[in-house]
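Intended use. Records like the one below are meant for learning the mapping from a protein sequence to its folded structure. Do not use them to infer anything beyond what is encoded.
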Amino acid sequence: MAESNSLLVIIRHAPYGSNLLREGVDTALVAAAFGQPVDLLFLGQGAMALLKEQGSGAPGQKASLPTIDMLEMYDIEHLWTTEESLAAIGVPTSMLRNDVQFLKAKAMPGFLQQYAQILNF
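Structure written out for the chain above:
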């Protein structure tokens, strides 16, 4: 059963392709700052935000890695992705941060039911 105010933010866009990743993370930070339990799920190109090492974005674009690093300060401790997402973009699990948890795609329906609210970016 979902906690009455639990939030899952799903991020599907690469760190530097658009502002959607930044907007999703910012939304998660605001919700967590107000005491809402928040988890993040990175799918498809969004999983690139979980790389240990990232290049810089376009001029004037803030890097996403420092923001991802500070999620724990806001009690956002669960960062999820799927092995299928990684395989689709050709990224081995060894290139990801150590705090990433893996979810099987076939377990996704049950996983999503744990959350009272889900936002997609």
